[in-house]
Amino acid sequence: MLAIRYNARSFSSLKTTMNKSMNPAPAQILDGLAVSAAVLTSVHEAIAAHVRAGGQRPGLAVVLVGEDPASSIYVRAKRKDCERAGIQAGDFDLPFETSQAELLALIDQLNRDDKIQGVLVQLPLPPHIDEVAVTNAISVSKDVDGFHAFNVGRLALRQPGLRPCTSRGIVTLLNYYGIRIKGRHCVVVGASNIVGRPLGLELLYQGATVTTCHRFTEDLAFYVRHAEVLIIAVGKRGVVDADWVADGAVVVDVGINRLESGKLVGDIDFERAAAKAAWISPVPGGVGPMTRATLMQNTAEAAGIDVAEPIMP
Ligand code: NAD
Prior knowledge:
Blueprint (H helix, E strand, L loop, with lengths): L7 H11 L9 E2 L2 H21 L6 E7 L3 H17 L2 E7 L5 H12 L6 E4 L9 H5 L13 H8 L8 H12 L8 E5 L6 H10 L3 E5 L6 H6 L3 E4 L17 E4 L3 E2 L5 E2 L4 H5 L4 E2 L6 H16 L11
Parallel strand pairs: 1-11, 2-3, 2-4, 5-6, 5-7, 7-8, 8-11
Antiparallel strand pairs: 9-10
Helix pairs in contact: 2-11, 3-11, 7-8, 7-11
The structure holds nicotinamide-adenine-dinucleotide.
Nicotinamide-adenine-dinucleotide binds next to helix 11.
């Protein structure tokens, strides 16, 4: 196993918080439903003020190819969020057989449409379409999902433009509750292009010390045990054992899994993790709504409208 030496000073505060004898009370909840509602209110107010001042209402083109049931649900929810935020949604539902050339032609048209400030293409796309080509065809200034290579590159270079919604939404959630990220050891489990990687960059941008774990990580338990802030984004129930969570840690669960009973759960056993953590995000009602609200925030910002980030009153 890779030997890692941790800075003694940075972990002294963690050890204090983790002192078993303190036996922390069950975790406080990182309430994504409440915070996302506050973000949507902020977006709504900013857009209303912009429109009152004679500005144009922002438009978001939501493109769905095919009829994947999960994607259809996400897209319907995003269109509802647009209504709540005061954003004009443009619906582009294309058949599964749509060719890559046809989709790229639509994106080109939307890129040139000055009533549209954001273009969102719901992923995954049918297998005959190259997702990378499509993502990178969206105008950088309309890339409200933040997945374009240019926008991810800017985040890596500390010049953020439009930032990926899930990772930005997690930072908004932590900021809302005044949870410090700067200088702390954040462990991200999962390294996908849409969550884990941009999240590592986002946390680094926020001044955290970041460890990213993935399917090839040896001894995942070791890293989890040393996490002050633990963020799990794998999509496998139980991938992180709640026993590994350090007392007093902050736990953010991005994973979404459906049990045989139909119940939606995250990647970690919530009850057991909540008994050890200081803060924890539930599934559902944690990161999911934050991702959606951040999409609205990004769309307003793509239209040049500043949105005030809510903090706990
Ligand atoms: P993905 O399958 O693209 O990536 C999973 C990552 O987990 C990979 O980097 C892989 O290396 C890692 N991994 C797999 N097995 C592992 C193991 N045993 N130990 C450590 N790492 C391991 O998934 P994704 O698109 O990043 O999504 C992850 C989860 O987050 C899914 O459940 C997805 O539904 C959910 N998700 C939620 C939101 C939200 O807004 N709540 C947004 C996006 C994704």
